[in-house]
Every structure is written in structure tokens, then in C-alpha cells.
TrEMBL record:
Originating organism: Rudanella paleaurantiibacter
Beta-lactamase class A catalytic domain mapped to chain residues: 42-256
GO aspect biological process, one term: response to antibiotic
Pfam families recorded: Beta-lactamase2
Protein name: Serine hydrolase
InterPro entries membership: Beta-lactam/transpept-like, Beta-lactam_cat, Beta-lactam_class-A
């Protein structure tokens, strides 16, 4: 208790009146952005240095879409840590594993590749066949959910191909989580607390190699390191990001569901909101930065 009080006093001392006013303005701006979205939306933001937090519908359940691949990686690395799998083990691809025509799904039956590459493709290119393969190797959704529960993540769950979760899958799809829990899971990995320090380090490095960087990441300077994962299905667009900003790391998660705009163009309301929130948070935490997205970049997509 004394440690908790001391920590609170330290955070209070580092977060003064002017900072509180800026936080109020940030929350006001975020609420205005979110209120214009035609659908349900939630956001959670936390500065890892000062503890400054903004939470709007942060404990509401949302579909994970591909962001579920962060928990899948945790479950897989738990198996590796226990000695049941080896990260460098050679795997043999079988046609029975095929889910869609991503990179792994286009391999020929009998193709060989290391587990480390399958994990990389799951997190970096969000390869679905690779992800379902990793989910199975992790012991399935039940084993991953058990790890999540044991580590305090009680709202985040794998639904797909998981016994007893058919009703949840019908409502949320592959998985479900809240903006707060998903952001804090990424921070948990960053802090070296997920599975083990060495496992966390390896997982975090995988999450820092994101192919899909046209949403919130496009609003950050290219030299700034980030760990992230995004997810998108017709009526949901989401992203969780941990930014290594010059003046202190911050993590945030924006999630949507029941979106009226189901288009897949760059100007989709969900994609546009991800970019707007990413830009606003960078401006808040790095107010002296003069960096702006390069003009014309948006026409590449």
C-alpha cells in the first residue's frame, strides 16, 4: 500500500496543472472525433512515463479481428518457454492447414520453413493461415485463454476454433477484447512481463515489424520506433500501438464495431479515424514536433 501511495505521489508530481489541462483538451478532442463515427467506438491511451490516461468506452468489448494475433503469440511463446516447442524448429506445411491465399497459404504441400518465420508472418503481414497454425501449436484457443486469464487479462479471449465459444464467435468473430486490455497487453510485453523477459523481448521485436503501416502509423515520423497490430473486418477497424516517442513512450488502442461504412477504400470512416487519432496523440505527446505526413502518400493506397 505504501508503495502504491508513493507511486501515486510521484506521478502526481510529474503531472501538473498545465498537463491536466492539456489532458482535458485531448479528451475533449478525442470525444469529438469518436462522436462523429457512425458506429460504436472506444479508445484507451496511457503515457508509460507519467501515467496520464484517457479512456473512452475503454472497457467495452469489441471484435479483435487480427489483433487477436498478439494473444496467440503469447500462448505460443508460453509453449516455447515450457520446452514443448522450439522457436527455430523446422515445420512442414500441409495443404490441410490452408485457410486463405496469404503467403503461407500459397506454399506447396511439403514445404519446409522454421517456426520463427511462421510467427513473423503472423505478426508482420497478419497472415491468417500462419496465425491459425500458430494457434493450434499453442494448444488451441482454450490454452491461450487460460494464459490470458492467469495473467490478469480477463476480457480478452480467442473464440474461433475454441470449444464452448461458438456463441461468442458469432457475435465477435475470431476474438474479443477491450481497448484497455489490448493496450495493456502490449505494454505488458514491452515491460518484459509476458511469459518471461526473453520471450517478451522476442515477441516485442516481432511486433515492431509491421507491414500494414498505412493507418495510425502513417501519422508518425518514420524514424520513430513502434510496436503495433491492427485488425479489420467489414464492420470493424482497430489498431493497438506502443510509440517510442522522444519524450516518453505511450500506448493506445482504438477499436470500432457495428460500423455503417463497410467499404475497403482508404477513406473508409474507420481507417480515417485511426489516422486522425494517431495524429492527434502524436501532437499531444510531442507538441514541438514539426513533422507532417509526406504529401501524396495517401494516393499510394
Amino acid at each position: 500500500m505504501k508503495k502504491a501511495i508513493l507511486l501515486g505521489l510521484i506521478l502526481l508530481g510529474s503531472f501538473g496543472t498545465a498537463d491536466a489541462q492539456k489532458r482535458t483538451i485531448l479528451e475533449r478532442d478525442l470525444r469529438a472525433m469518436l462522436s462523429a463515427f457512425r458506429g460504436d467506438v472506444g479508445v484507451y491511451v496511457r503515457n508509460l512515463r507519467t501515467g496520464e490516461t484517457v479512456a473512452i468506452n475503454a472497457d467495452t468489448l469489441f471484435p479483435t479481428a487480427s489483433t487477436i494475433k498478439i494473444p496467440i503469440q503469447c500462448g505460443l511463446f508460453d509453449k516455447i518457454h515450457r520446452g514443448e516447442l522450439k522457436y527455430g524448429a523446422e515445420l512442414v506445411y500441409k495443404d490441410s492447414l490452408h485457410y486463405d491465399d496469404g503467403i503461407v497459404g500459397q506454399l506447396k504441400d511439403g514445404a519446409r520453413l522454421p517456426l520463427s518465420q511462421v510467427v513473423m508472418l503472423m505478426e508482420t503481414t497478419s497472415d491468417n493461415t500462419a496465425s491459425l497454425w500458430c494457434q493450434a501449436m499453442a494448444g488451441g484457443g482454450a490454452a491461450i485463454n487460460a494464459w490470458l486469464n492467469a495473467n490478469g487479462f480477463t476480457q480478452t479471449r480467442v473464440n474461433s476454433r475454441t470449444p464452448g465459444r461458438a456463441a461468442f464467435q458469432k457475435q465477435y468473430g475470431w476474438g474479443q477484447t477491450t481497448p484497455r486490455e489490448l493496450a495493456e497487453l502490449l505494454a505488458y510485453i514491452r515491460a518484459g512481463r509476458a511469459v518471461s523477459p526473453d520471450a517478451s523481448d522476442r515477441m516485442y521485436r516481432n511486433l515492431c515489424r509491421q507491414y500494414w503501416d498505412g493507418d495510425g502509423l502513417s501519422q508518425l515520423p518514420p524514424e520513430v520506433k513502434v510496436a503495433s497490430k491492427n485488425g479489420a473486418v467489414n464492420r470493424s477497424r482497430s489498431e493497438v500501438v506502443l510509440v517510442h516517442a522522444p519524450h516518453g513512450e505511450y500506448v493506445y488502442c482504438l477499436m470500432t464495431k457495428n460500423a455503417q461504412d463497410e467499404s475497403w477504400e482508404r477513406n473508409n470512416e474507420g481507417f480515417a479515424l485511426l489516422r486522425a487519432v494517431g495524429a492527434r496523440l502524436w501532437k499531444h505527446f510531442e507538441p514541438k514536433s514539426n513533422w507532417k505526413p509526406v504529401a501524396g502518400y495517401e494516393t499510394w493506397w
